[in-house]
Amino acid sequence: MNERDALRRLAADLPHAGDDAAVVGDTVITTDMLHERTDFPPGTARYTAGWRSVGASLSDVAAMGAEAIAAVAVYADDAFDPTELDEFVAGAVDVCESVDAEYVGGDLDTHTEFTTATTAIGSVTDAGPVFRSGAEPGDALCVTGRLGRSAAALRLFDRETDAAVERANELFRFTPRVADGRALAADATAMMDSSDGLARSLHQLAEASDVGFSVDRDALPVHPAVAETSGETTDASGESPVGGSGDEATDRFEMAVHFGEDFELVCTVPPAAVDRLRDACPAGLTRVGTVTEPEAGVTADGDPLPDRGYTHG
Amino acid sequence: MNERDALRRLAADLPHAGDDAAVVGDTVITTDMLHERTDFPPGTARYTAGWRSVGASLSDVAAMGAEAIAAVAVYADDAFDPTELDEFVAGAVDVCESVDAEYVGGDLDTHTEFTTATTAIGSVTDAGPVFRSGAEPGDALCVTGRLGRSAAALRLFDRETDAAVERANELFRFTPRVADGRALAADATAMMDSSDGLARSLHQLAEASDVGFSVDRDALPVHPAVAETSGETTDASGESPVGGSGDEATDRFEMAVHFGEDFELVCTVPPAAVDRLRDACPAGLTRVGTVTEPEAGVTADGDPLPDRGYTHG
């Protein structure tokens, strides 16, 4: 059983397993584990790792349209280097501050591989929570920010020059879209984050809402770093998360749509609300398509968009 | 830097790192990581692992005197066996139900070693939260339940017979002392759980409250399973968590006081309240000593009680 099948099984048993965060009363709670081999490429600073680990959980809070309250983290490594630990905590504190949440500590553990487990809690406002299940045919499909940021970062890490690694670290330190999620909460009919890539997110929203999606490829907001790095290929080892490119899609499309790890919000809203919401989202909001009947499936420019992305290791 | 030094460093930087759980408004939040090599000996059923992992975090909520609300868990393994996953979730659900909390799901991750990361949240009542820092000389030192349960379980796992392993699994599935913690919250001047062993817990309380402790060895409530298994020795490999026995202490004392992992509550209360609180604690409450001036240190029958326990791997 792979991770997706296992998650599907969990979702059948647990009421909240199908959304980005569980809702308990007015509180949302979400947890994630990241580790070196699959999530922190060589060159990832501990400050960046702290930022990104905690940010991943804050992104899930954002995807519920909730206010972020606090986060905790477990830091596990084979040894505790005081400088690395301080940098990790500084990154965790700073990403929390970026969304007006509080980093309140955590736990340490000895592990054979650098591993983090983060949990964030949030507070549902009058407008939320927003689930994955409410999209209706005719709604506008929108994304915050720009896609492909993490795919570009991976390629920059591979260059191994100081400048490229520094830029990669910057790209890895995304701002969780908490402010955007709250701005969208009153109007969004469905929402999730794009951590598994836009394509896979759309298939998950399609299943949860029983709808299809029609994506306009030219409308996709692509991060400028994609242009800087597209065309390069990474080592084609089995573990390369950029693997599987080619087929009908261009490299750039792969980076923006299938790679994932961008932690942007993917949402459906009434078409008449798009202009207003664009102004309300600090990260920007782009309409990239339309919700369709379920029979139409998930398509981009009329072609089926495969349910393929980065399967988290 | 070892884990204790690292935790001390964290505690200096983060306001909540010195207690069992962080307090954010009326919410308490706590997180833990457990893994196969150090926390789940051969023979540990996945149901038991789910129960114990989530229970460890619920125990931290209990130690704050808070009501338990919900828990999440990350389940990481090198493959996802559907039966094992179902059993883990069943254990997680059941331990939550045992304390009137809700298991609301979590995340999956692929990892080289079976690893869990759990987080629990709770709600502070009018009586709480209880920190580690309020003990005063003259207070009575008390513990809930009985000590040595997990040390005995380890020895039963080592026997490898079906009956012994089944009994060991039962002993491993402790009831988090949430009801006891709430009963104690209004009176307790300091409280924590005994996950690192009574001895180490007392040293931590002593440091946080700037007091000493005088323990009466004969008063210590020892779990009946200790008598069943004391005198046996486990393999003296470097990783054996029962290692370090001998010295001046008997094996039974080692099991009850230094091994830890019992998840009982250790608290200080006004002496006049002990009888009333004993009746109010479902797990029972035993007075085992008295809070002293800090200069007296931590002693058992007048001898120094070393700050030695099971350092979590």
TrEMBL record, chains A, B:
Keywords recorded for this protein, A-Z:
ATP-binding, Kinase, Magnesium, Metal-binding, Nucleotide-binding, Thiamine biosynthesis, Transferase
tRNA processing as UniProt keyword = no
Database matches in InterPro entries: PurM-like_C_dom, PurM-like_C_sf, PurM-like_N, PurM-like_N_sf, ThiL-like
Provide the reaction this enzyme catalyses: thiamine phosphate + ATP = thiamine diphosphate + ADP
In short, the EC number is 2.7.4.16
Q: Where does Mg(2+) 2 bind?
A: 32, 60
For molecular function, the Gene Ontology terms on record are: ATP binding; magnesium ion binding; thiamine-phosphate kinase activity
The record, for Pfam families, names: AIRS, AIRS_C
Span of domain PurM-like C-terminal: 136-295
Biological-process GO terms, alphabetical: thiamine biosynthetic process; thiamine diphosphate biosynthetic process
Instruction: Give the binding site residues for substrate.
Output: 39, 261, 310
Q: Where does Mg(2+) 1 bind?
A: 31-32, 107
Say which domain of life the source belongs to. Archaea
Give the pathway annotation: Cofactor biosynthesis; thiamine diphosphate biosynthesis; thiamine diphosphate from thiamine phosphate: step 1/1
Residue numbers binding ATP: 106-107, 132, 195
Q: Where is the PurM-like N-terminal domain?
A: 18-124
Q: What else is known?
A: Reaction mechanism of ThiL seems to utilize a direct, inline transfer of the gamma-phosphate of ATP to TMP rather than a phosphorylated enzyme intermediate.
NCBIfam families cross-referenced by the UniProt entry? thiL
Which family does the record claim for this protein? Belongs to the thiamine-monophosphate kinase family.
HAMAP family membership: TMP_kinase
**Name this protein carries in UniProt:** Thiamine-monophosphate kinase
**UniProt organism field:** Halorubrum tibetense
Species classification: Archaea, Methanobacteriati, Methanobacteriota, Stenosarchaea group, Halobacteria
Name the gene that codes for it.
thiL
